[in-house]
């Protein structure tokens, strides 16, 4: 009988003593908490978000660029992980968060909105590449962070401004809360662009000074 099935521990309909069944036949089954437990990561000392923040800052990434992206089921492809093209979208959105914060430093909210809208002197993406390190699956949250590099050669370690004074590189990473590891990294080249005259430009000494102050050596993670 159905009552016997409820009492049989081997039955999929089993309800253990002290537990309640679904409110209706259509109620979805309860899901486990997707947040990774501390026991699964013995070196963790705080929440996944706190650990990600501490890790990225210790590697030299800009604290002001930290931004979260929740993974949804629609990010998956037929290979049952987040599609590679989604990583570019995450990085693009994180870049816009960094751009708004940088605009605030340059000239407050008005300048930030103008840069985001492509008005006056702002930035345009010249090129980017992405290193896909690990597959990401739902449910998860990835944290974006980036770091300005004024080094136009990846061998040189001292910050230098390009001879044209019109571009710089931006290093970015995506860090998985569930895996507690970097799942992708990116290097993009950004060009200063005058949207009024439709040409690249030198943003001026003050802007370069602020960028140089914000740049750090980034430590890699194997």
Task: Summarize the entry for a quick read.
The chain has 222 residues and is an alpha+beta fold.
How many beta-strand runs?
6
Distance between the termini: 57 Å
In terms of structural class, how would the helical and strand content be classed?
alpha+beta
Q: Radius of gyration over alpha carbons? A: 23 Å
Mean pLDDT: 80
Largest sheet: 6 strands, antiparallel
Question: Tags for this entry?
Answer:
222 residues; 6 strands; alpha+beta; single chain; six-stranded antiparallel sheet
What does this structure look like?
27% of the residues lie in helices and 23% in strands. By secondary structure, the chain is α+β, with helices and mostly antiparallel strands. Strands 1, 2, 3, 4, 5 and 6 form a 6-stranded antiparallel beta sheet that branches. The longest helix has 33 residues, at 84-116. The termini are far apart. Mean pLDDT is 80; it is low at 24-44 and 151-160.
